[in-house]
Design a protein that fits this description.
The complex is a heterodimer of chains A (315) and B (284).
Chain A lengths: L5 E10 L2 E11 L4 E5 L6 H9 L6 E6 L2 E2 L9 E4 L11 H11 L4 H14 L15 H13 L5 E5 L7 H16 L3 E6 L2 H7 L2 E6 L2 E6 L1 H4 L3 E7 L14 H12 L5 E4 L2 E4 L6 H10 L4 E8 L2 H12 L1
Parallel strand pairs in A: 3-8, 3-9, 6-7, 7-8
Antiparallel strand pairs in A: 1-2, 1-4, 4-5, 9-10, 11-13, 11-14, 12-13
Helix pairs in contact in A: 2-3, 3-4
Chain B lengths: L1 H13 L2 H29 L6 H41 L1 H6 L5 H35 L6 H22 L5 H28 L2 H13 L2 H12 L2 H10 L1 H4 L11 H24 L3
Helix pairs in contact in B: 1-5, 2-5, 3-5, 3-6, 3-7, 3-9, 5-6, 5-12, 6-7, 6-9, 6-12, 7-8
Chain lengths: 315, 284
């Protein structure tokens, strides 16, 4: 037994010879919004299916809300919006919600209020009596989100919840996710939309080829700060006779800059991983060493940059 | 389970299936009744009219032919209803949200099966009894056991529906439906071949027919239906004809034995268990 909302150890899944998940080890604390990031085919949806008992692991194991993976009773406390969201097209939106109230064993007396609250949350109150078959994709995804929120579940698993939504809808989903977390529930958000995850998640895990390759708070993961310095050639022109050109100057400047943080040289530019406070000292040191500076730009890598770096490094 | 059962019946109604079946039944009962009435009128106008025996023979044959057409319609209805019942939900993704709830997969299979059995069974009973009653009203001929005939006809539809439901836990809807249509035709053909085998004393053909009836008891139920529609005089004639009559798929010498009825029940239970195990092991 564990107190975590989700706790997996070396969780593995192979479909025949295809390995979808190699060895997933992660821990999601109760009450946090957890972003599960990864490129297409990284095993994100497979992991969700294993957590919900829709598929069986071929290795490893874990717990969800303290119970073994796939435990039937525990599923009453989980709301799930599948990546492939489809609901009975011949039912009305309210009837789909009523069906899921029934399946989730929500007491009869609470159902009416639950259904109306879900419809209001996902902005479908006016379309509640329309057939799902007449809904656009975005509206079906909203309905799916409403279905996942029924009965205030302890864990809400959202698999790419904004894939069919417009920018307004995406913003709304972010505030819905925050509201779920504010009432103390855990949100497991499966996404490849990094901006979305960066804004809403407390912690993220980047998964690639079925393994967690990085995990932490979004600002920690994307926190590589520093400065980009473009140097000029030693004396005026781009390649003066007898003088060092900009590339040579950059190589020399790198030695000076290395005192302030890790340095990456790219042609006539240096990227120095130093905290913002030491940028004036870095510039002064470079000038004192005779380096002529053409450009100094503060940089801060986004989660997206880090994601691309991490995934590229993994390949 | 009751949730899925209700859902299945609502689906049949919402997808206008129930109304289409009702309309088709009324049209086919009207056409056959009108046809039988015209035939009786025509035969009666000729010479001294029809003897009760001639009437019973003629009308019972028309009823058996109508029942044959209807058994085919029922089998196809069962197949077309059951083929997408689980496979369609898996293909569309509807099943993901459903099975992530605290439901047993067995409840999904049994709920689906019960819902479809109710739709197919009630349709078969209502349409069968209506046809017999309408023909009886215009000709005065009533087969010996209308209820048994309608029940066994319903059985044909339910057996094939169950078979397709089990297939649809693994196969795409279109494949499950196609296999069922072929299997139904094969079972019927094996029944005919078995009769011919009996007539010529070819043990292998008889054995093949028995195997066919054990594997898919639609032909068994069809013979039972025919028996319940035959007037006693036809039976007498058939008995005299001996094995020759058995080769004719529109004659039956005997009702289903107790063992055969029990096998149909056991077959349904076994196939349903296979369907449950198959869906429980299926990874989505």
């Amino acid at each position: 037994m564990t107190d975590a909302a989700i706790d997996t150890r070396d969780l593995a899944k192979a479909w025949g010879r295809t390995v979808a998940l190699e060895a997933l080890t992660m821990r999601v604390e109760r009450g946090e919004v957890f972003g599960f990031l990864g490129p297409n085919g990284a095993g994100k949806t497979t992991a969700v299916k294993l957590l919900l008992g829709l598929a069986r692991p071929t290795g490893g194991g874990g717990t969800v809300l303290g119970a073994p993976l796939g435990d039937r009773e525990t599923r009453a406390r989980i709301g799930y919006l599948p990546e492939l969201f489809r609901y009975q097209p011949w039912l009305r939106a309210r009837e789909v919600l009523a069906l899921h109230c029934d399946l989730a064993r929500i007491p009869g007396a609470a159902r009416g209020a639950e259904i109306e609250a879900a419809l209001a949350t996902v902005n479908l109150a006016e379309r509640g009596n329309d057939l799902v078959g007449t809904f656009s994709k975005g509206m079906q995804q909203r309905l799916g989100l409403g279905v996942a929120l029924l009965g205030s579940p302890d864990l809400v698993v959202l698999d790419e919840p904004t894939s069919a939504l417009d920018p307004v809808g995406r913003t709304e989903v972010r505030s819905i996710v925050r509201a779920v977390a504010d009432r103390g529930a855990t949100v497991f958000l499966n996404s490849h939309l990094l901006g979305e995850v960066e804004r809403v998640c407390d912690r993220v895990a980047i998964v690639d080829r079925g393994r967690v390759v990085a995990a932490g708070r979004p600002d920690e993961l994307g926190a590589e700060e520093g400065v980009r310095v473009v140097v000029a050639a030693a004396s005026g022109g781009p390649r003066p006779a007898g003088g060092a050109d900009a590339v040579d100057v950059a190589a020399a400047a790198a030695e000076v800059a290395a005192r302030f943080g890790p340095v990456a040289v790219d042609g006539d530019a240096l990227r120095v991983g130093c905290p913002p406070g030491s940028v004036p000292d870095l510039v002064a040191a470079l000038v004192a060493a005779g380096v002529r500076l053409a450009e100094v730009t503060p940089v801060r890598s986004s989660l997206e940059d880090r994601f691309l770096e991490i995934v590229a490094a993994d390949r | 389970m009751t949730t899925i059962l209700r859902l299945t019946i609502v689906e049949a109604a919402r997808r206008r299936l129930l109304w289409v079946l009702l309309a088709l039944t009324i049209v086919s009962v009207a056409i056959t009744t009108w046809g039988v009435a015209r035939l009786v009128d025509l035969a009666s106008a000729d010479r001294a009219g029809l003897s009760p025996l001639q009437l019973a023979l003629g009308v019972s044959q028309v009823l058996i032919l109508a029942a044959f057409m209807f058994s085919f319609v029922l089998a196809m209805t069962g197949a077309f209803l059951a083929a997408p019942a689980i496979a369609g939900d898996v293909e569309s993704g509807v099943v993901l949200a459903l099975l992530a709830r605290p439901v047993r997969r067995a409840d999904v299979v049994v709920g689906r099966w019960l819902g479809l059995a109710i739709v197919v069974g009630l349709y078969a009973l209502a349409a069968g009894l209506l046809e017999i009653a309408a023909v009886g009203a215009v000709t005065g001929y009533l087969p010996p056991n209308p209820l048994a005939a309608s029940l066994q006809l319903a059985g044909v539809g339910i057996v094939l529906m169950t078979f397709v439901l089990a297939l649809s836990t693994r196969l795409p809807a279109i494949a499950a439906g196609a296999i069922a249509v072929v299997a139904f035709g094969l079972a019927w053909m094996l029944g005919v071949l078995g009769g011919i085998g009996q007539f010529f004393g070819v043990a292998a053909l008889e054995a093949a027919a028995t195997v066919g009836r054990v594997l898919l008891p639609t032909d068994l139920l069809w013979r039972g239906t025919v028996f319940a529609l035959e007037p006693p005089a036809v039976l007498l004639g058939s008995r005299i004809a001996g094995p020759a009559a058995q080769a004719n798929p529109f004659f039956a010498l005997a009702p289903l034995s107790g063992l055969e009825v029990a096998w149909v029940g056991a077959w349904l239970a076994i196939v349903l268990v296979i369907a449950i195990v198959s869906l429980e092991r299926r990874e989505l």
